[in-house]
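Tokens in:
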């Protein structure tokens, strides 16, 4: 898994934000557009793109895009 590709996939889910503004260190909870619907969109993207199930609690307990990447990577390698 490549973190840059993951960040691009994550950013693509945020329709109202310039994707170039999203980095691995972005605190996604601080994105104005972020909502519970955004979380569901990310859950669906991770399932579709990576074949991994993540939970709302895992997203709530994460701060950065990299945190989500690390959860996905750990589950993918299991």
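Residues out:
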């Amino acid at each position: 898994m490549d973190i840059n590709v993951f960040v691009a996939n994550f950013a693509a889910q945020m329709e109202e934000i310039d994707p170039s503004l999203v980095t691995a260190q972005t605190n996604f909870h601080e994105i104005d557009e972020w909502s519970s619907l955004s979380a569901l969109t990310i859950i669906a993207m991770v399932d579709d793109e990576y074949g991994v199930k993540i939970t709302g609690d895992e997203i709530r307990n994460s701060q950065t895009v990299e945190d989500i990447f690390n959860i996905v990577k750990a589950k993918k390698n299991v």
